[in-house]
Design goal:
With 546 residues, the chain is an all-alpha fold. Helices cover 77% and strands 0% of the residues. Among the domains are: 1-97, no CATH class; 100-208 and 242-255 and 274-364, no CATH class. The chain contains 27 helices and no strands. Helix 4 (79-97) packs across helix 18 (347-380), helix 8 (156-173) runs antiparallel to helix 9 and helix 13 (226-241) runs parallel beside helix 27.
């Protein structure tokens, strides 16, 4: 009864928030002038709100898309026809014909096929048995998941799906909830990639910077990326102390009693069963290694490495979608040949895995397609222009600019579901604000500390918002990799992400006054540990009382 009351209360709160936001939109501007106003954030707010209320992501995303189409049609004066043109042609069709998006979907499907192949070959089973013999505790499994996520730093999509497929049988065996696994995966995807100089994220960030060497600037921002470092710290603390709170604690308590899903939605409950007992640990490790190598080679190939470009520049200039697709397909061919040579799988069994792998990825493909379409609606409504205006109006408060940029980046990434899009909007704003200071960089070779701090705040906020958002492609990938219900993942991860975000706000507030990375990062780490120990104290006290 108490759980039902809490459920009704949370739904009522979210409902009131959506109504309040709608009223704010109406006050801010009439719907006929929706472009570049608060109305531009209405579709994602509706989608996110409904997803959290209904626990159903497909219909929520579609309602958000439809509301965006309607607002755009009213603002443009195109009527009924304009709504469906915006949704169907500009949204669904355009996104599914976009080369980059299709490349990501191809990569996703191929990874699904490889996962099915590894399961059928018995590689995942063999690794699970080996791990079960060597990793004896929940703490060890959680830390192993974390370290594997850190090792696969090249790309967040690749990280999510690979770590999930490898660790899922082991976490299941040690009664770790799928929600917890999804959190561990998500927290070692974007937060690791954003502090890795050689990654698709480094390439994305460097591509948004003008007038300064993008990679050099990215490397300088790493020490000030508070969200990434504090998230890593939190993951280690939670894994070592086995401390959970909020909805995650409910999921973990249920998992300890044998229910790793908690909710009835078990879309991914059954993994592909091995068809052979001849599988060995090498049948998982070698395909994963081949996949990593081929994907890296594919990415640097698209960046011109084999045409004489150096490795770092090639990574910075790579086409991640094309490179990952190229690498994964090449790896798939090699992996199939390897399994047939090893005689663990026959040719027809390998071919059957293609359809099975595609089938496994259908939920993720559908959510990604809807998420991309929703982003198109926000672009049509000029959400970027609205946010730009908000940020530029706050530039007079220079010492508060890092914390303002962090908060704005969190909100923008949360509402739009894209961290890369947030980079693209906010970083040019920052560089234009500090245009005079950056003009001397080519002569002095030194980037002003305030520029570094502000761009770090943008990057950290974008990752944080992306981490929290139900419509984020990285969050979707983490759910897919863990084979966890998407809404479960979002609702359990949100309190953890917000805890780190709160500490980051204090850290970036300090950074506006003290331009010293050791003081800012050191203070933030100490504060984060204090918060985590306080949470652990209250959780343990509550457990002792009950």
């Amino acid at each position: 009864m108490e759980k039902k009351k809490k459920s009704y209360l949370s739904k009522a709160v979210f409902g009131l928030l959506i109504v309040a936001f709608t009223v704010c939109c109406i006050i801010a501007a009439p719907i006929t002038e929706a472009k570049g106003t608060l109305w531009s954030l209405f579709p994602p707010v509706i989608a996110i709100g409904l997803a959290l209320i209904t626990k159903e992501v497909y219909s929520s995303l579609f309602v958000g898309i439809l509301s965006g189409g309607i607002i755009y049609a009213v603002a443009s004066g195109t009527g009924f026809e304009g709504t469906f043109k915006a949704v169907v042609q500009d949204g669904l069709i355009t996104n599914l014909s976009n080369a980059y998006n299709v490349g990501i979907l191809v990569f996703l499907v191929v990874l699904g096929i490889i996962v099915v192949l590894m399961n059928k070959a018995g590689g995942s089973r063999a690794y699970g048995e080996w791990a079960a013999a060597h990793i004896k505790s929940r703490r060890g499994v959680a830390l192993s998941t974390f370290f594997l996520g850190v090792l696969i730093f090249v790309d967040d999509y690749f990280n999510c799906l690979t770590v999930g497929s490898v660790m899922r049988p082991i976490t299941d065996k040690h009664n770790i909830s799928r929600s917890k696994l999804a959190y561990l995966i998500d927290s070692t995807a974007a937060p690791i990639c954003i502090i890795a100089p050689i990654s698709s994220w480094a390439a994305a960030v460097s591509g948004t910077v003008e007038g300064v060497n993008g990679i050099s600037l990215f490397i300088n921002t790493i020490p000030y990326n508070l969200y990434a470092f504090l998230t890593i710290l939190m993951v280690i603390f939670i894994s070592v102390s086995d401390t959970d709170y909020g909805p995650m604690k409910i999921h973990e308590d249920n998992a300890k009693n044998g229910d790793i899903f908690t909710t009835k939605n078990k879309t991914y409950e059954q993994d592909a069963q091995p068809v052979t007992e001849r599988g060995r640990v090498i049948d998982l490790i070698l395909p994963v290694a081949v996949l990593i190598v081929f994907c890296v080679v594919g990415m640097i190939y698209t960046g011109g490495f084999f045409s004489g470009t150096d490795f770092v520049t090639a990574f910075a200039n790579c086409d991640a979608a094309y490179g990952l697709s190229l690498g994964s397909i090449s790896a798939l061919i090699v992996i199939i040949a390897y399994y047939m040579f090893r005689r663990v799988l026959k040719f027809n069994e390998c071919m059957d895995s293609i359809a099975a792998g595609f089938k496994q990825m259908v939920p993720a493909i559908l959510i990604l397609t809807f998420a991309w379409t929703l982003k198109t609606m926000t672009n049509h409504l000029e959400a970027g222009a609205f946010v730009s205006g908000v940020v530029q109006s706050a530039t007079a408060l220079s010492v508060l600019l890092p914390v303002i940029l962090f908060v704005v980046a969190v909100g923008l990434a949360f509402a739009t579901g894209t961290s890369w899009g947030t980079f693209g909007i906010l970083i040019p704003i920052v560089t234009s604000v500090f245009e005079a200071e950056l003009a001397n960089v080519s002569q002095t070779g030194e980037i002003p500390s305030m520029v570094i701090i502000c761009i770090s705040a943008c990057l950290a906020g974008a990752v944080c918002g992306d981490h929290c958002s139900p419509i984020s492609d990285t969050t979707i990938m983490a759910s897919t990799g863990a084979q966890c219900d998407h809404v479960n993942h979002v609702s359990t991860q949100l309190p953890y992400a917000l805890t780190v975000a709160a500490v980051c706000v204090v850290g970036y507030l300090l950074s506006g006054f003290v331009h010293n990375v050791f003081i800012v990062l050191g203070f933030s780490v100490v504060l984060m540990l204090a918060v985590l120990f306080a949470i652990r104290f209250f959780v343990k006290r509550k457990e002792s009382r009950s």
